[in-house]
Amino acid sequence: MDKVGKKCRDISFRSEKNQKLVCVHSREAREYARILESDNMVVSYEACQCLDITGGNKNGLTEKIRFY
Length: 68
Description:
Blueprint: E1 11-15, E2 20-24, H1 27-38, E3 50-53, E4 63-66
Antiparallel strand pairs: 1-2, 3-4
């Protein structure tokens, strides 16, 4: 039996790198945002965007991953 609807949490926090309020939808996404905030090589980032990963598979096709 499947659940009706999908439960989703919103975790909002102030991003110093983005100078705005950022909202993510999981603890894992929040932890990854903490890593991005502390990484000196990262200037800014966006949450809930598709990431293009190329060269990851043997056919050279682009895979889309949504980070929540």
